[in-house]
Amino acid sequence: MAEPTEHPTLEVCLSPALLHLYDLSQKIVVVIDVLRATSTICTALYHGAQKVIPVDSVEKCMEIGRQLGAVTAGERDGHIAPGLEHGNSPLEYPASFIRDKILVLTTTNGTRLLHMAKDAEEIIIGSFLNLTLVCEYLISRKRPVMLACAGWKDRINLEDTLLAGAIIHRIKTHFDIQCDAALIAEKLYEGTHKHLMHHMQQASHYKRLIRHGFEKDIAYCLTIDGAAVLPVYRDGAIELA
Amino acid sequence: MAEPTEHPTLEVCLSPALLHLYDLSQKIVVVIDVLRATSTICTALYHGAQKVIPVDSVEKCMEIGRQLGAVTAGERDGHIAPGLEHGNSPLEYPASFIRDKILVLTTTNGTRLLHMAKDAEEIIIGSFLNLTLVCEYLISRKRPVMLACAGWKDRINLEDTLLAGAIIHRIKTHFDIQCDAALIAEKLYEGTHKHLMHHMQQASHYKRLIRHGFEKDIAYCLTIDGAAVLPVYRDGAIELA
């Protein structure tokens, strides 16, 4: 039985609807929305975007887009939202398009979670695309950590839980884990990571995206270290650390 | 990829704080609070208790106890609550004591969840102690199922998630599962069930109970089919089906 140690704590919150149970004020929060907000954010910044501004409504997205001459993006029910220019697919943001631009992004789950975590000491963006950098950063900072999963409309989802498990699997010896959700996420990852894409095919959001033709997005979003940057959310915008 | 089938749905809710996301009105809800409310309920009824009345406060427990001449039980912070006679340990309720009596029980998490599920078509009580009967019943009824975990103060816990996984593992071919929490619970169970007690030692509630001297309770509560009854919650009381 692992006794409490001098290591900082590591916890996992599997749904935004549970985030109020935790005090985030002294913690580094890793916001996780694998399909696809945090994967798209990592990709845009990796490809040279100046910054990403996450907003919670289509109206705000259009307004800020006009003010800043920025690229506006967001989907509702699997289609580009009326009034916006682009979707949530990370594959829409190659360097040839997004370099030096500002991206204003509205997503259903990830954006909302970013705003909910505003009391945190730091907020960073996690995806499989920047897994190694996130892990190295968390180890180096020696601060309490909360892995916050966006889920789907407050329901727990497979892909975000898997990424939480992947992070824990890599960094657990540096942290004091007294959180059952963290144990669950890690066990899930250990049992499935050798056939990640196979297990993903059972996920509800996989089926949703496939119906809308986003099969390539899923394979890309599961690519470990495919867009190795460390995005930080600060003062309403996400930029490289 | 599993396509939707004609089978009834099976979902899992890992925290009472997420239960509002689901419509329970057409469903059989299995209330799960392994450590220890639902294990104690199964045990008392298996040992001949007339019924168990779950209440949400110590005051109500005392009042109903007086009215019915019933046994009153409940703990707060690991000790018998002031004003009540017994604790939440299933081992306090052998047949020699509880046969033909009414037990009024107040617990922190399980009782609250029973009341939250009141809109369900049916509510049954699940524990490892009655695993096989619960599974057989759910298969026979051919109705949509929600496995509702009590958790700990709205946080997800290991033992309730494990039991949900154990149920799914046994009955999944009879149901249409489009719920990521169900996939997660089942994978967790598949990866740990050969060494259940070992994995339980990492659980937060295990550590809490050990500190209060309840080690025997835990081993008992993980005993598959140790108290093979099917308790049903109806009109404010729990009785055998």
From TrEMBL, chains A, B:
Keywords of this entry: Hydrolase, Magnesium
Q: Which residues form the signal peptide?
A: none
What is the top EC class of this enzyme, as a single word? hydrolase
Q: Which cofactor does it need?
A: Mg(2+)
Q: Give GO MF terms, alphabetically.
A: 2-phosphosulfolactate phosphatase activity; magnesium ion binding; sulfopyruvate decarboxylase activity
> Pfam families, per this entry?
2-ph_phosp
Gene3D superfamilies noted in UniProt: ComB-like (3.90.1560.10)
- EC number, UniProt record: 3.1.3.71
Keyword Hydrolase in record: yes
Q: Which reaction does it catalyse?
A: (2R)-O-phospho-3-sulfolactate + H2O = (2R)-3-sulfolactate + phosphate
Question: Would you identify the family this protein belongs to, as annotated?
Answer: Belongs to the ComB family.
The identity of this protein, by name, is Probable 2-phosphosulfolactate phosphatase
